[in-house]
Amino acid sequence: MKRLDVREGWDANMRILVTGGAGFIGSNYIRYVLREHPEDVVLNLDALTYAGNLENLQDLEHSTHYRFIKGDIANPEDVAEVFAHGVDGVVNFAAESHVDRSILNPEAFVRSNVLGTQVLLEAARQAKVEKFVQVSTDEVYGTLGEQGYFTETTPLAANSPYSASKAGADLLVRAYGQTYGLPLNITRCSNNYGPYQFPEKLIPLMIIQALADKPLPVYGDGLNVRDWLHVEDHCLGVDMVLRRGRPGEVYNIGGHHEHTNLEIVNQILAELGKPRTLVQFVQDRLGHDRRYAMNADKITRELGWQPQIGFHVGIRQTIRWYLEHREWWQRVRSGEYQAYFAQQYGNRTGSRMIGGETK
Ligand code: NAD
Ligand code: DAU
Q1: Does pLDDT of 3 surpass 60?
Q2: What is the Cα 73 distance to its own chain's centre?
């Protein structure tokens, strides 16, 4: 088996453990790796929570370079079983990822995001992996005013239980590098959009509500700013970091596509030919971060990363994807998701939005 050379990069026959590969970004990443590096082998460890959906990877089911293992990163036995297959590198996407859910139930976030990361780190250390990549988020830096950007040296100042659990994980990853010499990187990316995103997140939720002529629930004044990046560009960055990132380094990834939530929602309505009267301002998210914006100069300078998909093209492609994959999101929106939807929006909008339906 070819080993990692940080100067040349991994070039053949790597066995990559991808955790959380049945979710939005993980599934896009696995497809990316098997397309761009067909000589590699991907092991996908995923607990299949409400957000994990094997339909996202149906086209790869019969690939001899791909294997799915159902398991929990916080369970050392599940993790040991996967490492027994042989692992050269780990990319840890597995996490509880939705801020609103973390406000309702922080405990699950600490278990998967903090404990789960530590269990994985320990297994990676024992296995002497060549690289451990922790997929983190811009949210660990907290919130910005109207000016400025997050850099890799911005102090961590997480504001939600979700971002606090991701910041805790980042510190554990750093500690495994400092203490045990584990070769690692942390990537911190801004808001992703694209195919297979679970429809609890802003962009798919608003597309689906608009298609059904239902109210679009905008939190607060709608002027919170997010920096949007197409998921393919995030996958490209993570993969460059896995293969060529300098061990021990943090890399920001971001699109420089800053928009208010209201701008995003109005663009979706315009693309779908729907009226702005569908916008419904609802009670704000607790502790709602005002603005995120990334300085991603370091990954561009060191690894040559550049976003390939402009926001205006990417958002149109994404809207088209949701139009062409109604069955996918209709199935996703059944079951547990509906109960969550009622809990999340039921008391924000009176009885107007339950299970995605206006009652
Ligand atoms: P997602 O919620 O769509 O997917 C998460 C996946 O992890 C699911 O398949 C789920 O089943 C799995 N999972 C959760 N807990 C697990 C556990 N204990 N053991 C094994 N599997 C488990 O999330 P996403 O949006 O694809 O985000 C992936 C990662 O990227 C997360 O770590 C998130 O913090 C980070 N991130 C996301 C964004 C974004 O905009 N979505 C931006 C930056 C960073
Ligand atoms: O910045 C990276 C982060 O982006 C990731 O780490 C998280 O995993 C991912 O969920 C995302 O977090 P956000 O909280 O920014 O994304 P979300 O889609 O939940 O919300 C985006 C913005 O839209 C935010 O300001 C809240 C607002 N919003 C969201 C929802 C779901 C609304 O106004 N209405 C809504 O119904």
Answers
A1: no
A2: 16
